[in-house]
Structures are given as structure tokens and as C-alpha cells.
Write a structure and sequence with these properties.
The chain is mostly beta strands. It contains 1 helix and 10 strands, in the order H-E-E-E-E-E-E-E-E-E-E.
Length: 165
């Protein structure tokens, strides 16, 4: 009987350690799936999130899942971050999607690669409230003015906010 109680105590202790040692750094993490794995020109992928902490800095990421149908080595996107007080910050960003030999960057063993791309580092939100982020692709072929109508191979677009340890 004493051995059973010791085993119960050990199991309870182990479960407690595991539960308290898992400090989740993610404050927000959401993905939107694109129809037919194609990002249409002008299509905004929208995220809405609430900020309560206006003191501690956070890292913000744009997360992409692409497959082998993606035919470019880079990606241009335009972001619009709208604050609760209606101020707006617009950024044009460029990310590398392949290495120099054309192999896709990102994590994944199959043809789908997941990329976690820095959007803002050490960002301190100035006001609390509900923010919105719109992301749209801004890819063009070399020498062309018009955007690519259907950017194939992008399956999901995500956004995440992480605490800085």
C-alpha cells in the first residue's frame, strides 16, 4: 500500500512539474486558409486581436505555408496595422522564400513548408484595445507594373504575437 502512495505522489509531482514548466510564449496565433492555395491580387488576409499589455515588448510574426507550386524565390507583401485610435501603419515587406540554389526555406518534411517571418521585433503597443492587421501580396513579374493576379502555392497566411523571454 505504501508503494502505491509513493507512485501516486511521484506521478502527481511529475505532472505538476510538466504543467508549470510549459511557459507558453504565444499570445496570439491564427491562420487563414487561402482558397485553392492561391492568393489573389488585392485579397486582404485580415486578423483582429486585443492588446492589454502596453509595457512589455513582443515579437510579431507573419506565418506562411507554401507548397511546391510557389514559383518565386521571394515574396513581397503589404501590411496595414490599424490601432484602436484609428491610426494606421503601412509597411511593404520583402522575404526570401528559397536559398541561393532554389530550395524552399522553412520547416516541413513534405512539399509544404512553414515560414515564420519577422514582422516587428520588440514591438511595444502604445495603447490597449483591439488592433487589426491586413496582409496582401504585392508580387509582380520583373519589368511589369501590374500585380500577379493569382499567386499560386500559398496555402495559409498566419499572424502570431509572442512574449520575449
Amino acid at each position: 500500500m505504501e508503494a502505491i502512495q509513493k507512485n501516486r505522489f511521484f506521478v502527481l509531482l511529475l505532472v505538476s512539474i510538466v504543467m508549470f514548466s510549459c511557459d507558453d510564449v504565444s499570445e496570439f496565433n491564427q491562420y487563414k486558409t487561402l482558397e485553392n492555395s492561391s492568393w489573389q491580387s488585392g485579397e486582404k488576409v485580415a486578423f483582429s486581436f486585443e492588446v492589454k499589455d502596453t509595457v512589455l515588448p513582443k515579437n510579431l510574426f507573419i506565418n506562411l505555408r507554401n507548397n511546391s507550386d510557389y514559383e518565386f524565390s521571394n515574396l513581397y507583401i503589404i501590411t496595414e496595422l490599424k490601432f484602436p485610435n484609428n491610426s494606421l501603419v503601412i509597411d511593404t515587406l520583402q522575404y526570401e522564400m528559397t536559398d541561393a540554389s532554389g530550395v524552399f526555406l522553412g520547416d516541413g518534411f513534405s512539399e509544404v513548408k512553414e515560414n515564420k517571418l519577422f514582422y516587428k521585433e520588440h514591438k511595444v503597443f502604445p495603447v490597449s484595445g483591439v488592433y487589426s492587421l491586413n496582409i496582401r501580396q504585392a508580387m509582380r513579374k520583373n519589368g511589369e507594373v501590374n500585380a500577379i493576379e493569382s499567386l499560386n502555392g500559398i496555402q495559409d497566411v498566419g499572424f502570431s504575437i509572442e512574449k520575449i523571454n
